[in-house]
Amino acid sequence: MWSPEREAEVPAGGDPAGLLPPEWEEDEERMSFLFSAFKRSREVNSTDWDSKMGFWAPLVLSHSRRQGVVRLRLRDLQEAFQRKGSVPLGLATVLQDLLRRGELQRESDFMASVDSSWISWGVGVFLLKPLKWTLSNVLGDNKVPAEEVLVAVELLKEKAEEVYRLYQNSPLSSHPVVALSELSTLCVGPCPDERTFYLVLLQLQKEKRVTVLEQNGEKIVKFARGPHAKVSPVNDVDVGVYQLMQSEQLLSRKVESLSQEAERCKEEARRACRAGKKQLALRSLKAKQRTEKRIEALHAKLDTVQGILDRIYASQTDQMVFNAYQAGVGALKLSMKDVTVEKAESLVDQIQELCDTQDEVSQTLAGGVTNGLDFDNEELEKELDILLQDTTKEPLDLPDNPHELFYTNSVPVPRISDAELEAELEKLSLSDGGLVPSRKSPKRQLEPTV
């Protein structure tokens, strides 16, 4: 079964994004089944019903998400999902099921669910429902007309969150009140058209994160201070700060315009001097000076307005810090509610007692088992001193020169000359032949080796 995660890219046919499930081009038999109408009731064949619904419902929602549109119409979906000249015959049933599950909602019902004063002017930008739609609802007909606008609920919530983050990260968030026109310019990305922008504001209003007010013919929007905070109604302070901000912007634009005019007068004076038109150059310089004086006056007013706004912003910051301190003190009091000095001292005494007990147990275990033998350390040390003294009194009989002792006790090795060895050898040879030597062999003189 197809799911949005298994989308495959195929040549663009009906789907503008060119992203359709694999079987769209590969399985003719299955696509013929999917393009056929639903049975009148799921009980007739629940398997076929669930198979078709499991294919089309995720595809409709993913198509809306890929296109970035929160508003759907049956006619637009039929055009988007055309295949070889055929349109899906069961899309109306799919939309009815999504409406029943709450994943889609009629645009008119969504607008009516928001209890807000600014919906009165918001209705003007939406098409009113035809009379036949109203009659069909009154009579209990749940069919979805081809032109009726439906809202993708989850995608609308995501866009509302995106708009809120976009505002929080922009310079407009310096004050919670902002002009609707400025906010609309900021939200061009997530809200490509005016109707989507108003739907997103309605969703934020439903979540109590914005409120809208019309002031002197201009609509202003107030945001909640934090992502989890609820917006408070627009008060006189918010309106006054908004007017000061508008005055600051007006003065800044006026100063910029006058600066360009002064520069233009300076250039005209320079050209007149080059052309030899002294009077014209003087008039241009006088106009430049008058313009510069106006700029100085506007700068003074602008500094005053900016100073007031800075004080307001500082007071708001001080109030936030004060509220944070107050919340911290309250939390500290709550956490220290059951803690007293007496309880703390008692707890410390108990800990000290347990530590002393642990030290005693450790010392007892370190003593070990003596098997009933109790040795006196002083007596052992005295006995060791006596042994050392006896050892020092007995002299050791050691030779002065160990080498002489070694050679004295050893057997001397005689030295035999070569002539004696030859005579002895000759004697042995004669004895072997039965002859007696004519002279005695010389007596060997044995000399000790040194």
TrEMBL record:
Alphabetized InterPro entries for the sequence: CHMP7_WHD, Snf7_fam
Entry GO terms, CC: cytoplasmic side of plasma membrane; ESCRT III complex; multivesicular body; nuclear envelope
Name of this protein: Charged multivesicular body protein 7
Low complexity biased stretches: 11-22
Segments forming a coiled coil: 248-275
PANTHER family with a match to the protein in the record: CHARGED MULTIVESICULAR BODY PROTEIN, CHARGED MULTIVESICULAR BODY PROTEIN 7
Keywords: Coiled coil, Cytoplasm, Nucleus, Protein transport, Transport
Biological function: ESCRT-III-like protein required to recruit the ESCRT-III complex to the nuclear envelope (NE) during late anaphase. Together with SPAST, the ESCRT-III complex promotes NE sealing and mitotic spindle disassembly during late anaphase. Recruited to the reforming NE during anaphase by LEMD2. Plays a role in the endosomal sorting pathway.
Quaternary structure note: Interacts with CHMP4B, but not with VPS25. Interacts with LEMD2 (via C-terminus).
Family: Belongs to the SNF7 family.
Source organism, top-level taxon: Eukaryota
Gene Ontology biological process terms in this record: late endosome to vacuole transport via multivesicular body sorting pathway; protein transport; vesicle budding from membrane
Organism: Myotis myotis
Region (Disordered): 1-22, 430-450
Pfam families given in the database record: Snf7, WHD_CHMP7, WHD_CHMP7_1st
Keyword Membrane: no
Domain CHMP7 winged helix: 156-224
Keyword Secreted among UniProt keywords: no
Subcellular location: Cytoplasm; Nucleus envelope
